[in-house]
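Appendix B. One record, verbatim.
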Amino acid sequence: MFDWLFVEAFALWGSVTTWLEIAGFALAVLMVIGNIHEKLWAWPLAITSSLLYFALFWRSKLYGDAALQILFIMLALWGWWQWWYGKQADGAALPVNTLTQRNMLKMIAACALLWPITGLFLKFFTDTDVPWWDAFPTAVSLVAQFLLARKYLENWLAWTAVNTVSIGLFAYKGLWLTVILYMLFIAMSVVGWQAWRQRLRTAA
């Protein structure tokens, strides 16, 4: 039924680009646009895009990134709920906010802990040839997704780190359309940072 997704659409710099990668690319761009504007419809797009990228990354032996897509789906369901029904401690609707210095240190510590744990798992329990490079975006993306779901401004900084490393990883695997996507993600993260920071200033 879905065999057409794995059919070659075109070749890009010597590597096959499938309809699966094209569909994931388009949905992911729309998802980030929705995130920038705090739109609820961004979350179902995130779920669908993650399903497509799970299949793409698994075929490319990027098991960390593939597993990450399943976690993304679960976090997207939670994030969708947070944006729809999430409240502050005082019961007010969830606004764009920023991390305290203490919570920022907690997020950095979480990244520092998750990266080696993920890398060791991929090294010893999968046949990936890039366990540490695959582990970094996997680990930091989990933190970034949590920050996004709770509308913390710093999610855009975390995504920028993820996207920068991912560009090299996907270039190594010949996923050139996805490389272009992650370059766009970096630019969109800058736009998202500026847009959310402006909302913070307006609300102050």
